[in-house]
């Protein structure tokens, strides 16, 4: 059983979602938050809650604000139940955190219910419309990386993803420790990621590291 927090300013969809959550028989409580501030206050008391958020009507100013709250309450699971979301927003969110699931309000009822069941099981769910949007809009990530990172930065990113330490990378490339640190900072800045875990996921999605090679 999970505590659930719903953040949705549309009465009809909020009431509908409350009903769907109740029908799952998996919610120990359902609380309503009117703003980001209210949500954070509730999460402070139930940090492992399931959050159902209409991002498009919320007072979150950016995807970074949203992810920061997600990182702060890392035990929480999130279902974004919103209208259409931009490709850039979806790409950043999906690549940066496994805590966020996405279902659009235009989805069929069966798919909305499927999303709820997945999130109560602690599993990520991305609805078909969002998946199709990403597949249709996304340029190959290897091509995107060619425009973002230098050849050296891509090589260092691959080494990071393969689990090599900064000291090992510096030794292998006959460079100073501080030079590799600078490259690392530049890679993180250019990819708009905050830590090694996010950088590794980016490298794997870009095809820089083969999954079999990663798990050796």
UniProtKB/TrEMBL annotation:
It comes from the Bacteria. CDD domains: LuxR_C_like. One of its GO terms (molecular function) is DNA binding. Keywords: DNA-binding. It holds the Pfam family GerE. Gene3D superfamilies: 3.40.50.2300. InterPro entries: CheY-like_superfamily, Sig_transdc_resp-reg_C-effctor, Tscrpt_reg_LuxR_C, WalR-like. This is DNA-binding response regulator. It comes from Dysgonomonas termitidis.
